[in-house]
Each structure stands twice: as structure tokens, then as C-alpha cells.
Specification:
By secondary structure, the chain is an alpha+beta fold. The chain is 21% helix and 31% strand. It is built from six helices and 17 strands. α1 crosses α2. The longest helix is centred in the C-terminal third of the chain and has 12 residues. It binds uracil. The site of uracil has 8 residues, from α5.
Length: 242
């Protein structure tokens, strides 16, 4: 598919579209060996050879990363004005600019997907594609079977009805309960707000899966590349809905 030259240059991370227009105006951009000064030119990234200042430019490699976000990190890139740690520190060694898909709260740990594939990222987040997100929640108090049944029916929250895809008791830990709860939507603080509605405050929260992608044994603070199989399973889970 052809795209405008300035868009292509910004997709390659060379410059913003406005700055790319300046580069074009200054005669620093060549397409297939010819200097191009026409802003309207469109290029096919698969076919055309584009150079800036004599250096070839190409689209960045698509990256699909799994990070085990530790508690005590903000899900954002760049610095926090309040000096809290951000996930940027954990992914410094990835040369491409990847973005977190959705957020985990500061104190939540677990699976975060990072990618530079914007289309896939949007679909992972959209409730229409119903990608289940699985959480382990340690809650205060012993959750009774009666409460568990109520949880399964769902409840009203201040921003609308919420119903988990599933919820089960993993085990009791002293006076607390470890629950596994799955939602396919990503409203802010959904798990904490939902469980608080039943009188059970979340003490610890960890996301263990997003659709077919599992956190597995990845240590906190570490990232790894998704395998080809994982990427294709993820795409299948999303695109089969379309
Ligand atoms: N639900 C929450 O309450 N917190 C998270 O970080 C993710 C889901």
C-alpha cells in the first residue's frame, strides 16, 4: 500500500511529518535514486528505496514484547514528574520505540504487552475483540461460596455494570483469599473496584494472561520477545472476530 512520503518518513522514525516536509524541501530525500521535492509523492514501503542524506531508511521491525511489570512501576514511558519509577527503565535495551498496550496500576504486577504495531494494540484493548485478561487477586477476608456466586452474576459499578468472564477461588491464605478473575474489558481499576463492591479489598494483584499470551515464569522486571507461535495465536484470537 502506498503512503505519502512524509508519512513514510515519520513511520520510519526519521522525523515528524512537518520536519519530513522540510527535509523534502531541502532536497535531502531521494526515492529510487532521484531527489524528490514534491510533497505529494507516495511511496510503496515494500518496493521503493528511500534515502535521507544518502542513507537508506526503512520501516522499523515490528516488535512484540512481554514484560513482567513489577509492583512499584508506572505503566508509562518517560519520566514521572513525581520521581516514581516507570517501565521505561525496564525496556531500555529495546532499540525500537514500543508502547505498552493498556495499563496496569502502579501497584499491580504481571503481564504487559508492548509493541510498535498500533493496529494490533488497539484491537487487544477493544472490548469488541473480547480478549480475556486473567488476574490473580489476593483479597482481604474469606470469600464465601455465596459471595462467589454473586460475583459471577456481576454488579453495578459507578461507570456501569461489570461481570467477569469467570471467577474462582484458588485457595485460602490464612484470613485472605486468592482469586482468579477474568475480564475481557479494561476499565480503570476494574478488578479492584469490582471486588471492593463485595467487601473484599485487593491486597495484591497480578495479571497472568491476555488472551493466548501467558506470563509463565518470566521473572518480575524482565522482558522477552513473543515467539512466532504466540504472535500468530494472538492475531488469530483477534482477527477471527472481525
Ligand atoms: N484492574 C485493576 O484494578 N488494576 C489493574 O492494574 C488492572 C485491572
Amino acid at each position: 500500500m502506498k503512503v505519502r512520503l512524509n508519512k513514510f518518513l515519520s513511520m520510519c522514525g526519521v522525523a515528524s511529518r512537518r520536519k519530513a516536509d522540510l527535509l523534502i524541501k531541502e532536497g535531502r530525500v531521494k526515492v529510487n535514486g532521484e531527489v524528490v521535492r514534491n510533497f505529494g509523492v507516495r511511496v510503496d514501503p515494500q518496493v521503493d528505496q528511500v534515502e535521507v542524506d544518502g542513507k537508506p531508511v526503512s520501516l522499523p521491525k515490528k516488535r512484540y514484547i512481554i514484560l513482567n511489570k513489577p509492583a512499584g512501576y508506572l505503566t508509562q514511558l518517560g519520566k514521572d514528574p513525581r520521581g516514581r519509577k516507570t517501565i521505561e527503565e525496564l525496556i531500555k535495551d529495546i532499540p525500537e520505540r514500543v508502547f505498552p498496550v493498556g495499563r496496569l496500576d502502579y501497584n499491580t504486577e504481571g503481564l504487559l504487552i508492548l509493541t510498535n504495531d498500533g493496529d494490533l494494540a488497539n484491537k487487544i484493548l477493544h472490548p469488541r475483540y473480547k480478549l480475556p485478561k486473567v488476574y490473580l487477586a489476593l483479597v482481604r477476608g474469606k470469600v464465601s461460596q455465596k459471595t462467589l456466586k454473586e460475583m459471577q452474576k456481576g454488579t453495578d459499578l459507578e461507570d456501569g455494570f461489570a461481570k467477569p468472564d469467570s471467577v474462582r477461588i484458588v485457595r485460602y491464605e490464612g484470613e485472605n483469599t486468592l482469586l482468579e478473575i477474568t475480564f475481557h474489558e479494561g476499565r480503570k481499576h476494574i478488578v479492584k473496584r469490582f471486588l471492593a463492591k463485595f467487601g473484599h479489598k485487593v491486597i495484591k494483584l497480578k495479571r497472568t494472561a491476555i488472551g493466548p499470551i501467558k506470563l509463565g515464569k518470566l521473572p518480575p522486571g524482565k522482558w522477552r520477545e513473543m515467539s512466532r507461535e504466540e504472535i500468530s495465536k494472538l492475531k488469530k484470537a483477534i482477527y477471527q472476530v472481525m
